[in-house]
Amino acid sequence: MLKNGQSRRKTACHLKNERSSRSHTILVLTLSVTENKDTDHMKKRVSHLNLVDLAGSERVAQTNARGALLADAQSINKSLQQLRFVIMNIVKVANGQLKSNFQVGFRDSVLTRLLSNSLGGNSKTTLIVTASRLEEDFEQSISTFRFATDAKQIRNKAKITFELTTSEMIAKIKRLEDQIKGKASIQVDNSRLLELESELEKQRAEFETMIMDLNRKNDSVVE
Predict the structure, then answer these.
(1) What tens digit of pLDDT does each residue of 205-214 get?
(2) Sign of CA dihedral 159, 207, 219, 42
(3) Is residue 61 part of a domain?
């Protein structure tokens, strides 16, 4: 699998590098552990490991890129810039410089959409940057260190979450519905009621997604 992915990696030669990466490389591993398989209280833990090798930013004046190489460089620089904007906004929200409901632009690029959980989700993230010691690359190196400094300010708190079984999901939805009916019949803090309703909608959406996934798996087995 690794060899297959590596073979698809795009590289090219220019004035600064004989094997310059012309695309980002992302390896996603999904690990699943199921407990109590033969009972109605089955629990499933799923972990996603993202290994990412970002292509480096380039100054066209130094690489003398033309044609397809130039187009690649522009795409790489644009995606890295979008990644930096996302990281900066995550930090600003955490520091109170932006409102807590500010919509961070994870969907602005394929790269940030794939890395959304690693950047602002339930995860642990490690970032390794490389920089040139050459004087002519000083500005690029400073930009790299600034990017790393911004990323270092992100604080994620990873915790174990369990996927509920169908019966557990149905029971939880019913329990939330009963709570909402009970709260609605008496005077209660509106914010708490809205919180319960929001949680109910979330659980219903997750339940529908679970059913759709099961249907897709059944269809694939039949085929």
Answers:
(1) 777 776 776 6
(2) positive
(3) yes
